[in-house]
């Protein structure tokens, strides 16, 4: 008795960028969850995949503002509260001197938050992905375009997806097992 493997999705290889882009648009319009693997960033592909998630940009902004504010707070606390030194009757807090270290810490915090948001958004690090078992996946880094329609709902019908990919001009259409 053989064990039935779960289907991750259905993948097809395309040699034409415009054909792959049109297939992605049609598949997302049909309500399927689609991933595209391309050798370079294809103009219009993020919009076709409907990747409109603004939270990585918000994480960058929050990191920058938080880092700047934290640096200003630490410097203010150190000079005005913890160890105040009155030098010639000047103010205890020199706000102009705090600007450069605060800016640098704000940039550092923005970069750390941006890299963290990118890793979370891209679901990385991921050492294994079912698409690696698709035989033509390696071609997506050298000139071909691989489109995978994922099995994420009860309405996923492998035969209907296979026919859709065949009508769209896909080659090497195969089931991808999880």
Automatic annotation (TrEMBL):
InterPro entries cross-referenced by the UniProt entry: ActD (IPR021776)
UniProt keywords, alphabetically: Membrane, Transmembrane, Transmembrane helix
Pfam families in the record: ActD
Transmembrane segments: 59-78, 98-120
Alphabetized PANTHER family for the sequence: LIPOPROTEIN-RELATED, QUINOL:CYTOCHROME C OXIDOREDUCTASE MEMBRANE PROTEIN
Name listed for the protein in its UniProt record: Quinol:cytochrome c oxidoreductase membrane protein
